[in-house]
Design a protein that fits this description.
alpha+beta; 3-stranded antiparallel beta sheet; about 90 residues; two-stranded antiparallel sheet
Length: about 90
């Protein structure tokens, strides 16, 4: 059976990437969970993703993480703060 794919979005309207839906869901869940009650810088977020997924994710966590993070920004599920350094947080409904 062919692997199901998802076309990601980009917050600046650039072309998205066609990636495995399973990998997308894994990273989406990890990113949303990492940001649940806190704001994280890019470095902190990716350290968190590596810690959570290192042993059970086949693929480049940084590349997939960045792709999914941009998609979640484009879908208005997470946002960047205007603070220095910039942080990511869940977008309030």
């Amino acid at each position: 059976m062919a692997e199901e794919k998802i076309l990601t979005k980009h917050p600046l309207g650039k072309s998205g990437k066609n990636i495995s839906k399973q990998k997308y869901e894994t990273l989406k869940k990890a990113i949303l969970s990492a940001l649940k009650n806190t704001q994280l810088t890019h470095t902190q977020l990716f350290n968190e993703l590596n810690n959570r997924l290192r042993s059970r994710f086949s693929g480049n966590i940084s590349w997939y993480g960045e792709t999914v993070k941009l998609d979640l920004e484009a879908r208005k599920m997470i946002e960047r703060t205007s603070s220095k350094p910039q942080k990511y947080r869940l977008k309030r409904a």
